[in-house]
């Protein structure tokens, strides 16, 4: 029986994001294309002699109680499986908090996947999906991983096979409240928006030229209005050689679509004076890996954006 597990869990960007309505429960109906990328948090799970859910994190600003999504995931899974939790969860954060890259949701999904194995529950993906839906709109995607078309609140997922895409990522030092961005979004029913199926086809074919012309995120009109600096970052990315640039989720992370891995590093080098986190990332099309490890060391993963 395994007692110690390690999981590298990825960030995501949204290659397309449109809000098509609002539900009575307060959630927004969306159409999006989730795309997992090679920027990772690492989750370490171990059984504990002390009952309860204990969390440690290298990021002091992240809550380690019920306010942490990984804690909520562990509680939801233990309730579902009727397990009395006695677990230590150690989170090594690399995905910036409040950046629009889905780090909290990714940590929650990794916790579900890892604890299901640690506790030998034998749960299938559909059961984990069901639990993930109750935790947040992005969590089900991170159970699936790769690239996926998302509808509903983002939980109705259709996988998309895609070749490797290379991106240059800029993450400003501030965070943006997703709730506030959605609250301030104004629906414009007459505005024409490109059909998501066209974007999906571009992604499948790896047609970067066409994809670069049709990247879309409706939430940009809120975040870029409130933070004009983000528009300047988009312009810098484009001037440095990106085919196109887009905000991920509610921001503030901005990504630029690069023609190739080699060009991505050249773009990064041209942005070295920008004063923000800049890294090259690529598509992460693999399933989240769960590895055994032995205490007392909690080794840090080397897999991250460069």
**Domain tally:** 2
Structural class: alpha+beta
* Tally of helical runs: 10
Shape, principal axes of CA atoms: globular
Low-confidence stretches: 299-304
H and E string: EEEHEHHHEEEHHHEHHEEHEE
Keywords:
about 300 residues; alpha+beta; Ribosomal Protein S5, domain 2; Alpha-Beta Plaits; 2 domains; 4-stranded antiparallel sheet; 12 strands; disordered C terminus
Provide a compact summary of the structure.
This protein is an alpha+beta fold.
Describe this protein's structure.
α1 (69-81) packs parallel to α2 and α8 packs across α9. The model is unreliable at 299-304 (pLDDT under 50). The chain has 10 helices and 12 strands. Strands 1, 2, 3, 4, 5, 6, 8 and 12 form an 8-stranded mixed β-sheet that branches. Strands 9-10-7-11 form a 4-stranded antiparallel β-sheet, sandwiched between helices. It is α+β, with helices and mostly antiparallel strands. The protein folds into 2 domains: 4-159 and 287-292, Ribosomal Protein S5, domain 2 (2-Layer Sandwich); 166-282, Alpha-Beta Plaits (2-Layer Sandwich), CATH 3.30.70.890.
């Amino acid at each position: 029986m395994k007692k110690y597990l390690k999981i590298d869990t990825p960030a995501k960007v949204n290659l397309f994001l449109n809000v098509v309505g609002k539900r009575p429960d307060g959630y927004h109906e969306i159409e999006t294309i989730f795309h997992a990328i090679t920027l990772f948090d690492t989750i370490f799970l171990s059984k504990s002699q002390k009952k309860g859910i204990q969390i440690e994190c290298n990021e002091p600003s992240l809550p380690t109680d019920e306010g942490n999504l990984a804690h909520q995931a562990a509680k939801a899974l233990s309730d579902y499986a009727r397990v009395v939790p006695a677990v230590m969860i150690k989170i090594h954060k690399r995905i910036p908090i409040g950046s629009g890259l889905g780090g909290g949701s990714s940590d929650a999904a990794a916790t579900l996947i890892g604890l299901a194995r640690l506790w030998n529950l034998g749960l299938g993906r559909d059961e984990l999906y069901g639990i993930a839906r109750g935790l947040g709109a992005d969590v089900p995607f991170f159970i699936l991983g790769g690239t996926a078309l998302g509808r509903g609140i983002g939980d109705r997922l259709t996988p998309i096979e895609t070749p490797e895409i290379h991106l240059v990522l800029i993450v400003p030092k501030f965070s943006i409240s997703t709730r506030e961005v959605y609250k301030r979004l104004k629906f414009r029913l007459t505005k024409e928006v490109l059909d998501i199926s066209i974007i999906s086809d571009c992604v499948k074919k790896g047609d970067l030229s066409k994809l670069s012309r049709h990247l879309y995120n409706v939430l940009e009109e809120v975040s870029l209005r409130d933070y004009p600096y983000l528009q300047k970052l988009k312009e810098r990315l484009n001037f440095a050689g990106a085919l196109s640039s887009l905000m991920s989720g509610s921001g503030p992370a901005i990504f630029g679509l690069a023609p190739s891995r080699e060009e991505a590093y050249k773009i990064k080098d041209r942005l070295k004076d920008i004063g923000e986190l800049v890294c090259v990332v690529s598509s992460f099309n693999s399933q989240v890996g769960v590895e055994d490890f032995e205490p007392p060391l909690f080794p840090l993963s080397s897999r991250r954006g460069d």
